[in-house]
C-alpha cells in the first residue's frame, strides 16, 4: 500500500496508523490539555449513509478475501484455481500485512509522538522506538505462553512441538532387523513424554509446507494480530473526516489482507483432524466481521470520539499493543515465509526440479514429473489418451517397447549448496520402475534393475565440480520387455518350459523384478509402465551437530511432500520394529504370558562423527520408557550405513493387544524413538532426533502342524496337517478377499481410493485381505519410504489382517546368482519395513508356484531340476531371509501349499502324505455352469485361499471405458477385447481366447437365471439404441447376480466345514478390487462401486449366517446356522417360510430355537424327498423359501440374517411383475415396495459419478440385492463417499431400480417407466407397460437421467 501525495489534501498517514492499536494509557508522561488546534470534539459526521453502507461493503470484501482460499482448498475438485493465481493472491495479501506494519505504523507513530500537541516531555526521547522495543519483548512472552498453552491443547489432537522450536521434518529411508540374543534388559520408567504428530493417512500432491503445529500456532498468532487491528481500523473509518479515500483504500486492504489470512487458514485445515477442519472456516468468518464491527462501534461513538485529539494520539500511538498486534502478524508471516526453502534444503524434493521426458530417438519430448510414469506424463502432454480407454492397452503398446529418459536441470538444487561446504549429499530413490541408468551431472552413478527396492547413493565427491559447472540428473529407463528378452538369452540363464507363465507379453517376466501383472493377466491389461514412480530426494547432511532438536513428521525413511530446510546430521535410511514374545521365533511357539520384546533396528547415515550416541524408546500412552541405549559410533561417512539395534522388554500386561476388528479392538500405540547425538562441545546439549511410529502388540501364527491325535479321536477330525491362523493364541475363521493393485499406474493411486476398498472389506465383515503376489509390495503410508498412499497403516487402524506375499507369481523362478543378488536386499528391506505393522499376517514365498512345480516334476522327464530349484528358492533362500529379519511374522513357501514335513529344519511336504489325510490349503475355480452349486465339486479343505467366478462390471463402469454408443453390447469388439480370460498367451489381438470367458458367464447365467435376450433388435447385434443399452446393462447385472449366488454358496459351505471333519477355518474370495473396467472376479469395481457380490459377501460373512444346502440328486435340504463367534455358544431363533411368486405365504414352518457352538454350525432343518420338503400341492417352480435368523451375540447385541432357497433354477420360474414402487425421502432414503409379485434380487443402483453403499435404514448393515416381497417394505439409505464421488449431490431421479423380472420383459419389447412428483419428497411409481403405440424410448446413458423419468432399468 502507498500514501497519497501531500498536495491531494485528502489522505495522510495517520488515518492508517490507528487501526492496529489497543487503548492503553501511559500515565508517566504529562499530557497536554486538548485544545481546538489539537482536535477537540467528536469525529466527522459527513457521508453518514455511505458510512453505514461501508459496513456491508467491507463485510463482503473481507469475507470474500478470507473465505475464498479456504473454500478453494477444501473443494479443489470443483473450485478450479490455478496454483499461480492462488500463490500470487496469497503473497500479495501477505505483502499488504507487512506493508501495514512497517510503512503505516512505525513511521506515523514517530510523527505522532513528536506532535506539538504533546508536552515537551514527549519530545526528549524517541518513545515510539522504545515502545516498539517493548512490544518485541512482549511478543516473546506472549509467544512463549501461546506455544506452551497451544502445545498442551494441540497434544490432545495428536500434535507435538519440540521445545527447541525446530520444524518437524528430517529424513530417513527403510531397514534391517537383526535377531539378537534374548538376554535383554529393560526398565519401566514413568515419564512425561510428548507425542509426535501422527502422520496423515491421506497425502495427495498438495505440498505439506511445514509441521502442522507450527502452522496452527503461527496462524493463531496472525489471526490475533489481524483481528485486533481490524476492529480499530473500522472504528477509525467510522469517524475520520477523510472518509472517501480511506474507504476505498480499506476495501482494497481488507480484501487482500483477507487473502493472506485465508490462505494460511486454508493450508492449516489440511493438517487438522476431521472434527476440527471447520476451525479454518471460523477463523475466516471472525476476520470478516471484525472491521464491520469496528465501523458500527465507531458510528455509535462518533459524537464523542475524535481521532485527532491529543489523547488519541498518545493512547493509540504510544501503546505497546500498537506494535504488538502488527508484530504478531509479521511473526506469523515469517513462520510462513520460512516454508520457502531458498537458501538451504536438508531434503530437496526432486519433484521441484523441471523434468523432461523423451523417447530413445528424441522424436517425443514432453514435460515430466516425479513421481510419475511415462504413460502418465504422455497423457498429461496430450500425446496419448487415457490408457484405460477402449483398446488403448493394444494401441499404446509402442510406449513400453520404447526406452524413456527422465532429465532434470539441477540448477535449483545447486542454488541451495553453500560454497566450500563440507556437508555431504545423498541421492535417494524410493522406487524406480525398473531397468535404469542413473547419471548425475554427467557422472554415471548406478544401474538398477529392481522395482521393489529403494536406492541411496553418496554424491558428495561429485558435488563441488557439479555445482560449479552445473548439469542434469538423468534416469534413462530401458524397456522391460526388451530387457527380459535379453537377460533370458544370456548363456548362463536357465531355460523354462512352456513359456513359463506368459499371459500376454512374452518378456521372460520371471527374470524381471517388476510387478508381474504389468505383463498382463487373465483379468488385467499389460501396460509394462516405466518411470520414477515414487518420490525421490537429494539429502544434505550437516558436517557437525548442534544442540537443536528435530521431530520427524513420519516414520523413517521420510518422504515429505516438498523440500525441508532443517539442518540434519543423520539420515535414517531404514527403520524396523519387530514386536514378539520373549523366546519366540519361527520355530518356537510364543508363550502368551511372556514379556514382549520391542526390537528396533535403525540404519543410519551420518554427516558428522558422533561418539557414544544413544536411543531411547517410549510409549507415551502407557507412560513407559526405556533406558537410553548406547548405539554404535557414527563415523561421519555418508557412504556407509551404521546399524543400531536395541531391544526393549515390556511386561505382558502393560499394553493391550491388537486384534482384527471382529475379534476385539485393533489397539495401536505411538512408539517414540529419540536419538541423542552428543555435539563436539562437551558443554552443549546433544542434538536430538525423534520420531513416532504407530504399532501394536499381537502374536500371529499360521498353524500348519499335524492335527493332534486327540482331535482325531475326540472331535472326529480328519488326520493330516492343520492350516489356520491364530491371533494372540486364539484360532479364528479367516474371512476375506484377495487384493490386487489398485491401478496399472502406481504413481496415481490415492489413499482415498485405497481406504474405500479396505473400509468396504471391513464393512462387509472381512477380517483379512490377501495381498496377492503378482502385484506390488504395498506401502505403509504416503510419508514413509515414498509410499505415495497409505495401505498397511490403514489395515492396522481398521483392524484387518494382511496376508502378504513376496512377488513371485505363476512362473518358475530362476536361481542365477545375478538374479538372487537383486532379490536378497529386496526381501530384507521390505520385511524390515513392514515388521512394525500388527496387521501383517504372514509372508508367503509366492503365488501358486508350488502347484506348478509339482505338475512340472510329474510331467517332464527332467522335472526334478525345477523341483530342486524351487526348493532352493522358496524352501531355503526366501525362508532364511524372512526368518532372519522377523520373529513376529510367519513364513510359508507359497500361497497354496501342502505344508511342510519338518519345521526345523524347514522341509516342504509336496506330495509326501498319507492318502485320505488333508494337508495345506486349497483353491477352486470351476467354470462349468452345472457345477456351480454341486457341493461334490467344492474342495474339502482346511482353508480355501482362492475361489471365485467372473462377472461384467456395471454399465456405469463401462461408461468410463467406452466412447462409442455401438460399443455398449456384450459381444462388441471393444468389450470382448477387454475380456482377458482365458488369456491370449501372446501379443495376439483381439484375444483369441476371450469368447471362452464370455461364454462361461453367459452359460452360467442362462443355466440358473432368467436372462436378457441373445438375439433380436435389442441384442448384441450392435445398433447403439436405447433398447440395446438396456440389454447390455441387464446382462452386466445378471452376470453379477450369478457371481454373487455361487460365491455365497461356497462361503457358506466352507463356513459349515468348520464343524465337519475337515475343520475348515478360512475362505478368501478371489477377488476384492479391480485394476481397470473389464470382466473380472472382483466384488468392487475400479471406481469403488460395489457389485452385487459385495452385498452377498456381507450377508455370508456376518458373525451368524443361515444358509439352505440343497442336494438335488438326493432331494435333501439342510438349513444350517453357522457361527464364527469365539469362545461362546450363541442362541437364537430360525424361521423358514414358503412363498409363492405372487408373494403369498404358502407355509410357515414352526420357528426353531437353536444353540450353535463357537466356530461350528447347527442344522435347524434337515428334510429329504420333495414330497416332504415342498408345501402340499406345490411344484419346484411354484414356491421358494425365505430363511432368516435372529441371534443374541455375547457382547455384540442382536444379529439378523436372511437367505433364499429355490428348489429349481430361477430360469425355470415364471416371475410376476412386481410393480415396484419407490418413495424417496431425505438423505437419500428409499422405501421400496412390491405391489405385484416377488422381485428376486432387487437391485438399486446409484448414478454415474457417485461412489457409496446402500445400508438398511434400521440396522445400518449394507443392504441391496434382496428379494422384495409384497407387503414387506425395504428401506435403504445411500451413504456416499464424498472423497471419491465426482457428483456430490446426485438427484434421486438418477437412481435406478431393477430385478430379475426385468430380464423377462426385454424379450417382449416392453419398457419400464417412472413418473416422479416434483415435491421435496418424491413418490416414484414403477411399473411395466406395453410399448406398442408409444414413442420409441430415448437413448439412455446411465448417470444422465432424463427429466421426469427414472427407469427401473435403462429403457
From TrEMBL:
- Transmembrane regions: 52-76, 88-107, 127-147, 216-239, 245-267, 279-301, 332-351
List the GO cellular component terms: extracellular region; membrane
Compartments, record wording: Membrane; Secreted
Q: Name one GO biological process term.
A: glycoprotein catabolic process
Reaction(s) the record says it catalyses? Hydrolysis of terminal, non-reducing beta-D-mannose residues in beta-D-mannosides
Gene3D superfamilies reported for this sequence? Galactose-binding domain-like, Glycosidases, Immunoglobulins
Please report the stretch or stretches of sequence annotated as the Beta-mannosidase-like galactose-binding domain: 355-534
User: Could you tell me the membrane topology recorded for this protein?
Assistant: Multi-pass membrane protein
* Domain of life of the organism encoding this protein: Eukaryota
For molecular function, the Gene Ontology terms on record are:
beta-mannosidase activity; metal ion transmembrane transporter activity
Q: What is its EC number?
A: 3.2.1.25
Q: Cite the record's note on assembly.
A: Homodimer.
Tell me which family the UniProt entry assigns to this protein.
Belongs to the glycosyl hydrolase 2 family. Beta-mannosidase A subfamily.
Identification of the protein by name: Beta-mannosidase A
Q: Which organism is it from?
A: Lentinula edodes
Amino acid at each position: 500500500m502507498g500514501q497519497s501525495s501531500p498536495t491531494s489534501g485528502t489522505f495522510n498517514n495517520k488515518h492508517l496508523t490507528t487501526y492496529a492499536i489497543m487503548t492503553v494509557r501511559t500515565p508517566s508522561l504529562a499530557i497536554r490539555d486538548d485544545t481546538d488546534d489539537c482536535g477537540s470534539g467528536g469525529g466527522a459526521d459527513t457521508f453518514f449513509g455511505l458510512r453505514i453502507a461501508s459496513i456491508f461493503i467491507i463485510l463482503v470484501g473481507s469475507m470474500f478475501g478470507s473465505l475464498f482460499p479456504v473454500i478453494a482448498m477444501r473443494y479443489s475438485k470443483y473450485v478450479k484455481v490455478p496454483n499461480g493465481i492462488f500463490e500470487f493472491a496469497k503473497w500479495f495479501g501477505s505483502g499488504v500485512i507487512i506493508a501495514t506494519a512497517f510503512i503505516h505504523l512505525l513511521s506515523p507513530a514517530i510523527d505522532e509522538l513528536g506532535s506539538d500537541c504533546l508536552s515537551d516531555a514527549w519530545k526528549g526521547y524517541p518513545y515510539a522506538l522504545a515502545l516498539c522495543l517493548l512490544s518485541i519483548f512482549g511478543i516473546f512472552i506472549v509467544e512463549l505462553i501461546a506455544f506452551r498453552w497451544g502445545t498442551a491443547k494441540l497434544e490432545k489432537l495428536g500434535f507435538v512441538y519440540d521445545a527447541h522450536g525446530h520444524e518437524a521434518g528430517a529424513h530417513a529411508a527403510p531397514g534391517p532387523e537383526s535377531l539378537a540374543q534374548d538376554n535383554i534388559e529393560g526398565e519401566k520408567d514413568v515419564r512425561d513424554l510428548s507425542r509426535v504428530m501422527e502422520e496423515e493417512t491421506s497425502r495427495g500432491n498438495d505440498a505439506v509446507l511445514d509441521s502442522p503445529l507450527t502452522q496452527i500456532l503461527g496462524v493463531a498468532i496472525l489471526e490475533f494480530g489481524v483481528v485486533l487491528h481490524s476492529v480499530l481500523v473500522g472504528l477509525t473509518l467510522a469517524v475520520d473526516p477523510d472518509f472517501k479515500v480511506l474507504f476505498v483504500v480499506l476495501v482494497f486492504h481488507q480484501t487482500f489482507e483477507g487473502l493472506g489470512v485465508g490462505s494460511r487458514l486454508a493450508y492449516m485445515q489440511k493438517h487438522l483432524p476431521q472434527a476440527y477442519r471447520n476451525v479454518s472456516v471460523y477463523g475466516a468468518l471472525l476476520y470478516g466481521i471484525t472491521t464491520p464491527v469496528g465501523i458500527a462501534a465507531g458510528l455509535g461513538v462518533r459524537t464523542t470520539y475524535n481521532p485527532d485529539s491529543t489523547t488519541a494520539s498518545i493512547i493509540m500511538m504510544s501503546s505497546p499493543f500498537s506494535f504488538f498486534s502488527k508484530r504478531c502478524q509479521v511473526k506469523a508471516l515469517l513462520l510462513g515465509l520460512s516454508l520457502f526453502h531458498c537458501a538451504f534444503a536438508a531434503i530437496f524434493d526432486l519433484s521441484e526440479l523441471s523434468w523432461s521426458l523423451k523417447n530413445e530417438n528424441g522424436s517425443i519430448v514432453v514435460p515430466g514429473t516425479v513421481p510419475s510414469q511415462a504413460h502418465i506424463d504422455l497423457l498429461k502432454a496430450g500425446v496419448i489418451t487415457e490408457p484405460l480407454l477402449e483398446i488403448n492397452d493394444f494401441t499404446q503398446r509402442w510406449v513400453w517397447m520404447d526406452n524413456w529418459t527422465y532429465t532434470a536441470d539441477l540448477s535449483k538444487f545447486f542454488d541451495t549448496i553453500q560454497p566450500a561446504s563440507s556437508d555431504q549429499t545423498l541421492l535417494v530413490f524410493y522406487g524406480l520402475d525398473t531397468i535404469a541408468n542413473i547419471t548425475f551431472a554427467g557422472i554415471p552413478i548406478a544401474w538398477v534393475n529392481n522395482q521393489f527396492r529403494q536406492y541411496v547413493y553418496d554424491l558428495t565427491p561429485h558435488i563441488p565440480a557439479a555445482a560449479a559447472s552445473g548439469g542434469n540428473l538423468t534416469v534413462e529407463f530401458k524397456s522391460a520387455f526388451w530387457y527380459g528378452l535379453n537377460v533370458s538369452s544370456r548363456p548362463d540363464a536357465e531355460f523354462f518350459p512352456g513359456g513359463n507363465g506368459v499371459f500376454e507379453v512374452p518378456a521372460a517376466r520371471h527374470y524381471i523384478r517388476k510387478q508381474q501383472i504389468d505383463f498382463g493377466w487373465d483379468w488385467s491389461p499389460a501396460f509394462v509402465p516405466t518411470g520414477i514412480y515414487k518420490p525421490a530426494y537429494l539429502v544434505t547432511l550437516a558436517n557437525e551437530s548442534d544442540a537443536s532438536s528435530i521431530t520427524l513428521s513420519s516414520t523413517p525413511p521420510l518422504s515429505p511432500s516438498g523440500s525441508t530446510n532443517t539442518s540434519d546430521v543423520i539420515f535414517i535410511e531404514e527403520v524396523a520394529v519387530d514386536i514378539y514374545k520373549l523366546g519366540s521365533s519361527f520355530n518356537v511357539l510364543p508363550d502368551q504370558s511372556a514379556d514382549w520384546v520391542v526390537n528396533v533396528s535403525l540404519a543410519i547415515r551420518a554427516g558428522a562423527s558422533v561418539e557414544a550416541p544413544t536411543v531411547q524408546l517410549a510409549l507415551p500412552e502407557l507412560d513407559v520408557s526405556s533406558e537410553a541405549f548406547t548405539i554404535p559410533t557414527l563415523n561421519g561417512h555418508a557412504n556407509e550405513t551404521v546399524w543400531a539395534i536395541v531391544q526393549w522388554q515390556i511386561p505382558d500386561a502393560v499394553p493391550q493387544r491388537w486384534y482384527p476388528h471382529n475379534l476385539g479392538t485393533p489397539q495401536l500405540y505411538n512408539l517414540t524413538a529419540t536419538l541423542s547425538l552428543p555435539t563436539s562441545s562437551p558443554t552443549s546439549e546433544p542434538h536430538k532426533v525423534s520420531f513416532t511410529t504407530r504399532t501394536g502388540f499381537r502374536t500371529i501364527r499360521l498353524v500348519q502342524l499335524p492335527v493332534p491325535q486327540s482331535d482325531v479321536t475326540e472331535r472326529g477330525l480328519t488326520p493330516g496337517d492343520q492350516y489356520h491362523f491364530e491371533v494372540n493364541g486364539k484360532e479364528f475363521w479367516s474371512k476375506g478377499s484377495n487384493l490386487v493393485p489398485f491401478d496399472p499406474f502406481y504413481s496415481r493411486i490415492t489413499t482415498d481410493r485405497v481406504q474405500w476398498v479396505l473400509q468396504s472389506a471391513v464393512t462387509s465383515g472381512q477380517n483379512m485381505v490377501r495381498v496377492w503376489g503378482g502385484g506390488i509390495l504395498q506401502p505403509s503410508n504416503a510419508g514413509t519410504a515414498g509410499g505415495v498412499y497409505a495401505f498397511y497403516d490403514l489395515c492396522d487402524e481398521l483392524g484387518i489382517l494382511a496376508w502378504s506375499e513376496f512377488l513371485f507369481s505363476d512362473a518358475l523362478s530362476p536361481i542365477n546368482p545375478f538374479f538372487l543378488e537383486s532379490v536378497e536386499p529386496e526381501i530384507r528391506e521390505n520385511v524390515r519395513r513392514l515388521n512394525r505393522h500388527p496387521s501383517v499376517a504372514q509372508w508367503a514365498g509366492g503365488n501358486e508356484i508350488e502347484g506348478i512345480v509339482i505338475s512340472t516334476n510329474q510331467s517332464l522327464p527332467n522335472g526334478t531340476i525345477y523341483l530342486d530349484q524351487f526348493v532352493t528358492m522358496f524352501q531355503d533362500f526366501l525362508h532364511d531371509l524372512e526368518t532372519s529379519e522377523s520373529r513376529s511374522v510367519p513364513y510359508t513357501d507359497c500361497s497354496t501349499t501342502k505344508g511342510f514335513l519338518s519345521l526345523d529344519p524347514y522341509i516342504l511336504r509336496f506330495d509326501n502324505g498319507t492318502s485320505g489325510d488333508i494337508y495345506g490349503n486349497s483353491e477352486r475355480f470351476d467354470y462349468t455352469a452345472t457345477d456351480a452349486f454341486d457341493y461334490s465339486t467344492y474342495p474339502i479343505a482346511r482353508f480355501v485361499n482362492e475361489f471365485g467366478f467372473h462377472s461384467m462390471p456395471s454399465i456405469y463402469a463401462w461408461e468410463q471405458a467406452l466412447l462409442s454408443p455401438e460399443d455398449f453390447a456384450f459381444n462388441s469388439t471393444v468389450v470382448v477385447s477387454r475380456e482377458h480370460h482365458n488369456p491370449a498367451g501372446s501379443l495376439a489381438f483381439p484375444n483369441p481366447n476371450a469368447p471362452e470367458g464370455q461364454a462361461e458367464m453367459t452359460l452360467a447365467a442362462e443355466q440358473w437365471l432368467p436372462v436378457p435376450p441373445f438375439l433380436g433388435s435389442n441384442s448384441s447385434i450392435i445398433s447403439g439404441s436405447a433398447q440395446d443399452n438396456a440389454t447390455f446393462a441387464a446382462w452386466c447385472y445378471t452376470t453379477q447376480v450369478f457371481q454373487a449366488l455361487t460365491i455365497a454358496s461356497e462361503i457358506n459351505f466352507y463356513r459349515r466345514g468348520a464343524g465337519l471333519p475337515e475343520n475348515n477355518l478360512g475362505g478368501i474370495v478371489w477377488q476384492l478390487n479391480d485394476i481397470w473396467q473389464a470382466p473380472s472376479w472382483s466384488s468392487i469395481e475400479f471406481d469403488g462401486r460395489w457389485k452385487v457380490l459385495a452385498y452377498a459377501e456381507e450377508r455370508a460373512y456376518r458373525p451368524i449366517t443361515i444358509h439352505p444346502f440343497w442336494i438335488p440328486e438326493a432331494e435333501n435340504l439342510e438349513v444350517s446356522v453357522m457361527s464364527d463367534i469365539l469362545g461362546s455358544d450363541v442362541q437364537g431363533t430360525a424361521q423358514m417360510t414358503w412363498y409363492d411368486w405372487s408373494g403369498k405365504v404358502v407355509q410357515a414352518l414352526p420357528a426353531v430355537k437353536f444353540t450353535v457352538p463357537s466356530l461350528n454350525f447347527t442344522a435347524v432343518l434337515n428334510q429329504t424327498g420333495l414330497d416332504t420338503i415342498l408345501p402340499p400341492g406345490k411344484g419346484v417352480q411354484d414356491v421358494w423359501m425365505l430363511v432368516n435368523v435372529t441371534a443374541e451375540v455375547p457382547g455384540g447385541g442382536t444379529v439378523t440374517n436372511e437367505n433364499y432357497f429355490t428348489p429349481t433354477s430361477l430360469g425355470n420360474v415364471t416371475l410376476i411383475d412386481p410393480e415396484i414402487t419407490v418413495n424417496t425421502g431425505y438423505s437419500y432414503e428409499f422405501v421400496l415396495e412390491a405391489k405385484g409379485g416377488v422381485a428376486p434380487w432387487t437391485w438399486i443402483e446409484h448414478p454415474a459419478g457417485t461412489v457409496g453403499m446402500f445400508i438398511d435404514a434400521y440396522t445400518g448393515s449394507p443392504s441391496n440385492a434382496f428379494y422384495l416381497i409384497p407387503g414387506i417394505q425395504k428401506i435403504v439409505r445411500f451413504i456416499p463417499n464424498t472423497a471419491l464421488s465426482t457428483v456430490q449431490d446426485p438427484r434421486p431421479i438418477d437412481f435406478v431400480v431393477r430385478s430379475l423380472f426385468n430380464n423377462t420383459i426385454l424379450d417382449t419389447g416392453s419398457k419400464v417407466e417412472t413418473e416422479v412428483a416434483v415435491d421435496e419428497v418424491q413418490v416414484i411409481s414403477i411399473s411395466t407397460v406395453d410399448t406398442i403405440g408409444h414413442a420409441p424410448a430415448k437413448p439412455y446413458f446411465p448417470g444422465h437421467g432424463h427429466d421426469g423419468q427414472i427407469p427401473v432399468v435403462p429403457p
